[in-house]
Amino acid sequence: MATESTTTGSTMLYSRAEVTKHNHSKDTWIIIHNKVYNITHFLNEHPGGEEVLLEQAGIDGSEAFEDVGHSSDARQMMEPYKIGELIEADRSKSEERKTKEFSNGDDENSGSWRSWLIPVALGLLATLLYRYFINPY
Fold this sequence. Notes:
The chain is of the alpha+beta class.
């Protein structure tokens, strides 16, 4: 059986059981894509409020994190709070695939420009339709 926390190289490894113990406002850890973050000092700074983070405290918040659609800036803001990763036995295989997808810098950048490209294109199309078909003068 694996220990609750170990070190490999310079990376601390934690079990899900260890992360579960840190589930209150004075000591808040969260798992996002098999990485462990100590977000205790970020609670008051979170734009969505601390309640949102406390709901995920001590558990895997990967799905909730992605459902919100965090920006590449938000993903970069997470890095200082990373304290380690899950031990191999506790890792979610589907999360490992998603981590590879989200860690590709090109995908993050293309996702951010795509998020505004569609509304701009629809706005231009609506303007052209209005200008040439509804109000031709």
